[in-house]
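Model: You mentioned two targets. I'll fold them one after the other.
Researcher: Yes, keep them separate.
Model: Target one:
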Amino acid sequence: MNSSEKKKTAVALGSFDGLHKGHTAVIASALSLRASGLFPVVLLFDEHPQKILGTAPDEILQKHLRRRILENMGIEIVDISFAEICNMKAEDFYKDILLDELNAKALCCGENYRFGAGGKGDCVLLKELCEKSGTKLQVSESIMFEGEPVSSTRIRTAVKSGDIKAANTMLGRPFFYDGEVTKGDRRGRKMGFPTANQFFEEGFIVPAFGVYASTVRVRGERYCGITNIGVRPTFGKSKPRSETHIENFDDDIYGENIEISLIEKLRDEIRFSSMEELAAQIKKDSETAKLIFEKKGENGCV
């Protein structure tokens, strides 16, 4: 643990694997307690709990980007090994980790929060433990979307099905990722639409194949983009990749990291009979993406 354990803290509890609207509500709850003299911290596991207990779901937010978002929110991150605490009884986790190590005087969580070995601890038990120790407890209600609670599982389903608008609404921000730009075969440049090629990290979710209106962050600046997710069937490729044409940008960025935010799916990935037919379609996609970019702004907010 870090120096925050010596301070009286307000601890945000949860998996925070996607930092969706439900997660940020819990974090906002912890941040609100700064006015009461408490130091807000968020407890992060080094691995997704399901990776230790079984098979981890696909990541919907890269770990380094999650840390960046949390730091920008103004909450201190406390890292903990899930493997070290996964077999602790709920009561022991509460006393040994939350009270003794973190010096928690307030806890914030969602109404479906579970803790302790086997996830046997719930908000009812947490309330009892807090009442006994005089610890403040703030439980955030679930954020609803289309009649059901927002969850990382629902967001994964939306991303994999190409419903990126629904995913972004549940996230409260665009679904985004970054990665190194790798050299391709330069076919896009020959057609007048140079692209930045990126491969997805192992374990990261691959969105539904297709073409998306996107925003691209390059060297601190944001640009309108069109991003193809897939295997490029016109050219007989097989490994999924992200391939983005950046409007009004033609610098050499091979080897650099750029950030892609998907805003809206334009169409499915299809095979074209010729490069001329593909170029004509890309031009149409580009014009549509520009209109979306102008309407929603450079951040792509819905």
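Model: Target two:
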Amino acid sequence: MTVHTGTTVKALKRNADSVTATLEGGGKTWEVTAERVILAVGIVGNVEDLGLENTKVKVDRTHILIDEWCRTDEPGVYAIGDVCGAPWLAHKASHEGVICVEKIAGLPHVHPLDTSRIPGCTYSRPQVASVGMTEKAAKAAGYDIRVGRFPFIGNGKAIALGEPEGMVKTIFDKKSGELLGAHMIGAEVTELIQGYGVAKTLETTEEDLVHTVFPHPTLSEMMHESVLSSLGRAIHI
């Protein structure tokens, strides 16, 4: 995999069995030929032909504006999912649907959605997963942070699976011990990230995670080791 940052696709040329892309960046122009080209430059809401023009429903840059209960400004009209904006994830839309219906039904103890606790997963090889803040975002928000890292090569299960490449990274507020964010790359991290998702929802601290027992041999042990690493206490590196 080759990643080109600060690069613009200037043109695409369809060949008999391939596509040639003209790229521009860093003061130079070059061509790359591939079998297929996938273009992903953002998501817009499908709000056309819904009859919203004569309602109080507000649309901002193709996305419907809602409150914490998924209500629009038009009484009785709700919206969920991609049409309401980021993050554009199926599990976010599903959770919004539950919140919306429970609120309509008048159920007690309904909680609004906190998007900072929604895990993001990329089903590539290797897989990528994250929840919460990045290290850069945490610093920009004014947090004094502590960061832990642990590599897949230090985990027996990862080695046994033949997947020794990857890492787990955790970010904590040094003052309170709050888990601010977690980031992973490697085998099955889209499954592992939910552990940190639960931790954020429960407002788990660094100390809580240190005292949690993780089963052996599992990939999840790396999650523990990353927390220990933030305190300079990692065991297997």
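Researcher: Noted. Anything on target two?
Model: The chain has a mean pLDDT of 95.
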